[in-house]
Amino acid sequence: MEKARPLWDNPLQFVFACISYAVGLGNVWRFPYLCQMYGGGSFLVPYLIMLIVEGMPLLYLELAVGQRMRQGSIGAWRTISPYLSGVGVASVVVSFFLSMYYNVINAWGFWYLFHSFQDPLPWSVCPLNGNRTGYDEECEAASSTQYFWYRKTLNISPSIQENGGVQWELALCLILAWLLVYLCILRGTESTGKVVYFTASLPYCVLFIYLIRGLTLHGATNGLAYMFTPKMEQLANPKAWINAATQIFFSLGLGFGSLIAFASYNEPSNNCQKHAIIVSLINSSTSIFASIVTFSIYGFKATFNYETCLNKVILLLTNSFDLEDGFVTASNLEQVKGYLASAYPSKYSEVFLQMKNCSLESELSTAVQGTGLAFIVYSEAIKNMEVSQLWSVLYFFMLLMLGMGSMLGNTAAILTPLTDSKVISSRLPKEAISGLLCLVSCAIGMVFTMESGNYWFDIFNDYAATLSLLLIVLVETLAVCYLYGLRRFESDLKAMTGRTLNWYWKIMWAGVSPLLIISLFVFYLSDYILSEALQYQAWDASQGQLVTKNYPPHALAVIGLLVASSIMCIPLVALGMFIMRCLRRADTASVA
Amino acid sequence: MLWLLFFLVTAIHAELCQPGAENAFKVRLSIRTALGDKAYAWDTNEEYLFKAMVAFSMRKVANREKTEISHVLLCNVTQRVSFWFVVTDPSEKHTLPAVEVQEAIRMNRNRINNAFFLNDQTLEFLKIPSTLIPPTDPPVPIWIIIFGVIFCIVIVAIILLILSGIRQRRRKDKGPSEVDDTEDKCENTITIENGIPCDPLDTKGGHVNDAFMTEDERLTPL
């Protein structure tokens, strides 16, 4: 008697699992950046169009495939066509790469969370230099939050060639992060199903608290106004549309096999169309919600920095000209400057050289994304709030929940095919397979805790998943529509759920979405080919800022390997299957 | 005669205390920045207090216990509230070396600040760097404590889950062996009526009516 496939306790667990997986760090740290770069409020237009045209159809396709085939990604694609099991293998490989480097973000989250229980926050003050007469030089050149991130957390080396040693503190945090992931996936859907209740809902609670706190901060309206004023001319910029499509694509986590894995644990009669629409809508609205919070925080930070800059200018003028303390304020600064320029022209021109030009616009327009936004900009804003420890703990706890939720999806994508395969699951129990996976990923992940670890992290972040996923999803869509047959799939779905497939989905799957993916793929490929040398940002300790450097040959080789190893799975496995079939036919022919 | 002496004394004092003079220090106060509405006005009484504090600091230095308030000279008081000061020796002809004054002020900086309700940033002695207080480091970094707590909780939870999983699997292994026996008996007793096999009720998952069951044995052995 076959063991019954584990199921979600109720459809709500499935929806929560998908939300918890799709709503991740990208919603918090990538979407606000894109919104800022491509025209604020007007970016919502390409974003929503891409959601309807690309996001929902592809999400529904993956969920439907998983629910119909009731197996992980390898088994599902093998059922569609044995030559296509390479697609499933490619998904597993990409998921493996992702889980290796993604958990390092959780390790950083833990590091900051543990350090939030101090007064004052360690990133709010610079440490003193050797003879205690001033602050550390690197900290003076950069800011205290940048110093804490680059020196205390990462202990970053000046370039990717200098490896340095493993940072034991960060390694401990990484081990803890993997132990926590193991705890959540230990029992399969039984444990994952309960954990996703928390990882899906708690971030929203924290975001809501932050929304209220953010909107009541001084200067928040500056950031919000800056963000939401639409710049309509950006609609004509093709990059805006490409980035909207890319963001929708990667934000939903298509192509990793996690959605197929989650859907495979569904009852066959589950209404996955409704769930696909719900999940994609919630994902996009979370992005918009998170960007409101981010921009109010941006506005607060920009206003704070602007006012600090103004105060420095006022102090400089007051000291140089021995004016009465409190005479010069922000409102009469310009008049005073004019008066001083006319009254003491020579002295004023000397002082003028030291004066910084303070501008709120320039503070607001510094757009940051990724780890820089999450760990530097946010922590800088938090250190200036009252009761900063509480806000810091809440914020990093939210980051951890978001990261953990995505990790659960990633590991499910790898584990489901492994536990489905009879070869492995007959020899080892589920707990041992998960344990082995966590152990191997943790061991390889130690690379990211070295001094040059952040540079390798950026390599994985930028190249491990981008091109491969586009190709994987393209092959998936074409396979379902043209190899398996759209009519056959339609009748399968009708038999399974009892609902007919809407013409809209048919058009999208067969025509529009593949075309979109092909154009994205062509764009990225041409971008890589046309750019002369691949470059990265390295931290220069003496200047206290990032400098651009070229990748050395061995890093380029790793990038090539990353992209090739996942893409090559598709043709290689197809070829292997073909050869095996030929051999088997030759065998049966010789026997007969 | 007296007038002549008076002019002589003030002239000498004026020479001793000048902006940029030897052994002179510039002081800058930002009272309104520090105290806001509760700012006090800087007048000659405050100057007197300042001279007193400087004289007090000098008295703490060896060999300078005889420093009087009159030995501290202030000059060039501006609207900013900034001024220069020097400390003279008892002869009132020479100024004390800058190094001694600097050391004395540094040692008593805190008390001077407190006398005026100011701090190192709002009461500045230019050219006298303030000793920065290093942040207190607890013997065991706090983050390790919290890390240890969470680490132990996670390990305990993992061990509990693994053990309960092993126990469940052992119970399941014992269970199916009993179910297999009843299944064998079930297969032997399939009765056929009119060519249609009647399946016993329990394999179909129907409810057994307890009113008709007298013993625990569901199937009568052949």
Automatic annotation (TrEMBL), chain A:
Bilayer topology term: Multi-pass membrane protein
Keywords for the protein's UniProt record, in alphabetical order: Glycoprotein, Membrane, Metal-binding, Sodium, Symport, Transmembrane, Transmembrane helix, Transport
Single GO term (MF): metal ion binding
InterPro entries: Na/ntran_symport (IPR000175), Neutral_aa_SLC6 (IPR002438), SNS_sf (IPR037272)
Short name of one Pfam family: SNF
Transmembrane residue ranges: 12-31, 43-61, 82-102, 166-185, 197-220, 240-265, 277-298, 393-415, 436-457, 463-486, 507-526, 555-580
Top-level taxon of the source organism: Eukaryota
Amino acids binding Na(+): 22-23, 27, 251, 283, 402, 406
Record's subcellular location: Membrane
GO terms (BP aspect): glycine import across plasma membrane; L-proline import across plasma membrane
GO cellular component, one term: apical plasma membrane
Family designation: Belongs to the sodium:neurotransmitter symporter (SNF) (TC 2.A.22) family.
Classification via PANTHER family: SODIUM- AND CHLORIDE-DEPENDENT TRANSPORTER XTRP3 (PTHR11616:SF44), SODIUM/CHLORIDE DEPENDENT TRANSPORTER (PTHR11616)
Stated name of the protein: Transporter
Automatic annotation (TrEMBL), chain B:
Entry's transmembrane regions: 140-163
Subcellular location: Cell membrane
Domain of life: Eukaryota
Keyword Ubl conjugation attributed: no
GO molecular function annotation: protein homodimerization activity; transporter activator activity
Membrane topology summary: Single-pass type I membrane protein
Domain (Collectrin-like): residue spans on this chain: 21-222
GO cellular component, as recorded: brush border membrane; cytoplasm; extracellular exosome
UniProt GO BP: calcium-ion regulated exocytosis; insulin secretion involved in cellular response to glucose stimulus; positive regulation of L-proline import across plasma membrane; SNARE complex assembly
Keyword Signal: yes
UniProt keywords, alphabetically: Cell membrane, Glycoprotein, Membrane, Phosphoprotein, Signal, Transmembrane, Transmembrane helix
Name of the featured protein: Collectrin, amino acid transport regulator
